[in-house]
Amino acid sequence: TQSTWGFIFTGKMKTSVTEDKLIWKTVLKEGYGGMPESIHEVSIHYIMRLSNGMEMDSTFSRGSLFKFIPESDQVISGLSLAVKTMKKGEKALFDIDSKYAYGDSGNAPKIPPGSSLQIEVELIDFSTKKKPLMDMTSEEKKKAGEELKVQGNEKFKAKLYKDAAANYKDGI
């Protein structure tokens, strides 16, 4: 089987993310550095499919990264647990049992009750959630702007132009 990113899954080793073995991970591309924690805001690209391969959602079709804080109510628990096992730049395929997805109720109309999911994830970045702009000192604002410029440059080099532009805009 081949993914939309062109990686071949055959022969890749799967590891369990959870003790109950209901989330499995296959690393497609190694990352670097540390892994995000519950306090971090993560930025990812993903493709979500039902276990039969039917695509249900994708950041690529929307043309922008998805940002969230793991273990918040913003995402299914399986995705929160999955990203916390990743390093920056890593791409992985996760097989997520319905218990860690939408459960017995599903998410109508797209995701039937009891559906397991396959989510292909690329962890682009993670950082500590920043203070609101109005609560920052002038020095903190300057530092935050410089960080956004550096992040924008990294995304530009990775040809993530819309994401780079968003960083530059936020830094102004």
Q: How are the secondary structure elements laid out?
A:
Blueprint: E1 14-16, E2 23-29, E3 40-50, E4 55-58, H1 59-62, E5 66-68, H2 77-83, E6 91-96, E7 117-128, H3 138-157, H4 161-171
Antiparallel strand pairs: 1-2, 2-6, 3-4, 3-5, 3-7, 6-7
* Percent range for β-strand residues: 25-35%
DSSP helix fraction:
10-25%
User: Mind summarizing the main beta sheet?
Assistant: 7 strands, antiparallel
What is the overall number of helices? 4
Query: Which parts are unreliable, with pLDDT below 50 for 5 consecutive residues or more?
Result: 1-8
Mean pLDDT across the residues is: 86
User: What is the global morphology?
Assistant: elongated
Number of strands: 7
Q: What's the gyration radius in Å?
A: 17 Å
The quaternary organization reads as single chain
Distance between the termini: 44 Å
Decide which structural class fits the backbone.
alpha+beta
- Topology pattern, helix = H, strand = E: EEEEHEHEEHH
